[in-house]
Amino acid sequence: MTLPNPQAAADLAAQLKPLDLKGRIALIEATIPGRLVFTTSLGIEDQALTHALAMAKGRTEIVTLDTGRLYPETYDVWAETEAAYGIRIRAYAPERRSEEAFVRESGINGFRHSVEARQACCGFRKVEPLGRALDGAAGWLTGLRAGQSANRADTPLAEFDESRDLIKLNPLADWTREDVDRFVRDNYVPYNVLHDRGFPSIGCAPCTRAVRVGEPERAGRWWWEQESKKECGLHVHVPETDVAPGEEAAAFETTQSHRPEMAR
Ligand code: SF4
């Protein structure tokens, strides 16, 4: 692959499709020259991917966005992961003056006032730091899965991100939540204890709650907003013909089987 473009991403997606996770990481690192960045939220999908990357001992950088509003349990699994794999997860934090201005003008929980205020908060706590994390990157790895929500139902294994001029890789795109749980359990991967307390998806503490049985996985994120608006601006997917041949977008999953009792 020379330059990132939609066709190159579609070709790569087709090549990734038959491979297991180890093979997918190897192919991504062999195919995409230049800087590769994996942004982890320290949720269970990202922990599975962190494990695979740590085992591969490749060249993909593992980074996280420390919004300053994360659960204590998230910081705990962050430290636990670094100790378990002997790695450092590089943190990108909000720009101090933006944070101070938002809190001064809107209040510490001002993101609850409107969708616009919430997006502004996600903007300086997540989107702007993400831009710095991806500066100069040729490939961006994520733990997104198609089954996580209706908004993510057409998540491909690889796609061209025109706005950032890079290839976005989602090596778990076609995994189910059960696949993730099995991988984590079988490989003794450290995970956030909140997953055992009804949190299938874990973000900032004031914007994430546990979900009830039968609710979609991301029902606990910004639950006071409409479903269609529930993304933070990090993952803006424009559907293209970049889904691998024969791969159909999965219907998003509910939590009826998402309460795994995983031995830690
Ligand atoms: S998830 Fe909530 S606290 Fe976190 S950046 Fe977005 S609005 Fe702010």
Features:
alpha/beta, 6-stranded mixed beta sheet, 7 helices, 264 residues, binds iron/sulfur cluster, 6 strands, disordered C terminus, Rossmann fold
Walkthrough of the structure:
- This protein is an alpha/beta fold and 264 residues long.
- It has a single domain, classed as HUPs (Rossmann fold, 3-Layer(aba) Sandwich).
- Helices cover 34% and strands 10% of the residues.
- It has helices at 6-16, 21-31, 44-56, 72-85, 96-106, 115-133, 177-186, and strands at 35-40, 61-65, 90-92, 137-141, 158-161, 166-169.
- Strands 3-2-1-4-6-5 form a six-stranded mixed β-sheet.
- A hairpin with a 4-residue loop joins strand 5 and strand 6 (166-169).
- It binds iron/sulfur cluster.
- Residues 67, 69, 111, 118, 121-122, 125-126, 203-204, 206-207, 232 line the site of iron/sulfur cluster.
SSE order and pairing:
Elements lengths: L5 H11 L4 H11 L3 E6 L3 H13 L4 E5 L6 H14 L4 E3 L3 H11 L8 H19 L3 E5 L16 E4 L4 E4 L7 H10 L78
Helix pairs in contact: 2-3, 3-7, 5-6
The structure holds iron/sulfur cluster.
The site of iron/sulfur cluster has 13 residues, from helix 6.
In short:
The chain is an alpha/beta fold and 264 residues long.
3D shape: globular
Q: Into which percent range does the helicity of residues fall?
A: 25-40%
| Number of structural domains | 1
List bound small molecules: iron/sulfur cluster
CATH class: Alpha Beta
In DSSP terms (H or I, runs of 4 or more residues), the helix count works out at: 7
| Estimated structural class | alpha/beta
Rounded Rg: 18 Å
Number of DSSP E strands: 6
| CATH level 4 superfamily | HUPs
CATH topology: Rossmann fold
